[in-house]
Specification:
heterodimer, A: 110 residues, B: 248 residues, mainly alpha, globular
């Protein structure tokens, strides 16, 4: 455990290294148009980020690749995928996700 | 004249109310995840020995969930300050990409607006605002409100967690799955054509592999850069082919 002083140095340090990457692109690029190649490259960034946030969360358990029937994240997620694809509704997808995750958790009880 | 002014004021109040309503409902999934997770973060920070002021300070100043969890566990494990700050930097570098994507929706905004907006860029607020912007039904004000609502939820929850310790029974798995479900929805909604689908599948596979070998959130940065390069390459190949066809 750190001293009080050190904790605040830590917090401010963490704040700076978090804030600068968030702020620099907005400050640098907001006044000028991005070159077209960069625009079309950046277009694919969000899908990559969403994939990276989704796939490991549903396929990895305890640092292992896991595809089994008691992987409730995976089973709920298949349902959420289907609902999102069919209805294009974010709210409904999230609702179905929460309910199915909760119900499966109760049923499978892991 | 007075009536005109009056109706003008009423009009703008109505518009602000409308904006607030839209932004709040857009932020609901974020808050459903942030409240329980923020609470858990506050509880863990308290257990690692942080005071409520320090917990509030960290969540207000850093405002980045995964790095706060990492920091708290590193503090508990007696890591050095330098190591924690470097880990935070690496884990949060992905926001650089998010801000770079968002910038085209925020052109010509004042510096002050951008300085405040930057602080609110998280995985979740980015995801929701990006989606709304591309649907063409969004503006910087509404996006800012989403950021502020998310920020408020996260900090409120951290402080309550820090104050109470683990009194409230909360299921963190459901909370973090709420955010996963939100990202799944946004992933699907963003698969606008074949190129996006290919990028989605390839980055999905890559992210599983990379997250297993890297074991921290930096894999998100690598996956996103990989995905953007794949998408860009395919798009270029397709336009080349089209041009060749037209020439023949």
């Amino acid at each position: 455990m750190f001293s009080d002083m050190k904790i605040w140095i830590l917090i401010i340090g963490m704040g700076m290294v978090t804030y600068l990457p968030r702020m620099m692109p907005l400050l640098i690029f907001s006044k000028k148009n991005l070159p077209p190649w960069l625009e079309s490259w950046l277009k694919y960034i969000p899908v990559g980020i969403f994939s990276a946030l989704v796939f490991p969360a549903i396929f990895i358990r305890n640092q292992m690749f896991c595809v089994t029937v008691n992987n409730i994240e995976l089973i709920s997620s298949i349902l959420v995928f289907a609902i999102a694809f069919k209805t294009r509704s974010l709210g409904l997808s999230v609702m179905v996700g929460i309910i199915s995750y909760w119900v499966l958790g109760e049923v499978i009880n892991v | 004249m007075l009536n005109l002014i009056e109706s003008g004021i009423i009009q703008s109040i109505k518009q602000i109310k409308g904006n607030l309503k839209e932004s709040f409902s857009a932020a609901i999934p974020i808050c459903l995840g942030y409240l329980p997770l923020g609470f858990a973060c506050g509880v863990l920070a308290q257990k690692a020995g942080l005071s409520v002021f320090e917990i509030a300070g960290m969540s207000l100043i850093v405002f980045a969930g995964s790095s706060q969890f990492i920091a708290v566990s590193m503090i508990g494990a007696n890591s050095s300050i330098e190591a924690i700050i470097i880990a935070t930097f690496v884990v949060n570098l992905r926001h650089f990409l998010m801000s770079s994507v968002l910038v085209k929706f925020l052109v010509n905004k004042k510096k002050k607006f951008l300085f405040i907006y930057s602080h609110g860029v998280t995985d979740e607020s980015f995801a929701i605002n990006y989606h709304k912007f591309t649907e063409g039904i969004w503006d910087p004000q509404k996006a800012m409100i989403v950021n502020i609502v998310a920020f408020t939820c996260w900090n409120f929850a951290n402080i309550i967690g820090g104050l109470t310790g683990a009194i409230l029974p909360i299921n963190n798995e459901i909370a973090s799955y709420t955010l996963t479900a939100m990202f799944i929805g946004l992933l699907v909604l963003n698969l606008k054509n074949k190129v996006f689908v290919i990028v989605g599948i390839m980055t999905g596979a890559a992210s599983i592999y990379l997250s297993l070998i890297l074991k921290n959130s930096f894999y998100i940065v690598i996956t996103a850069i990989l995905g953007a390069s794949i998408g860009y390459f395919i798009e270029n190949q397709m336009t080349k082919k089209k041009r060749e066809k037209n020439n023949v």
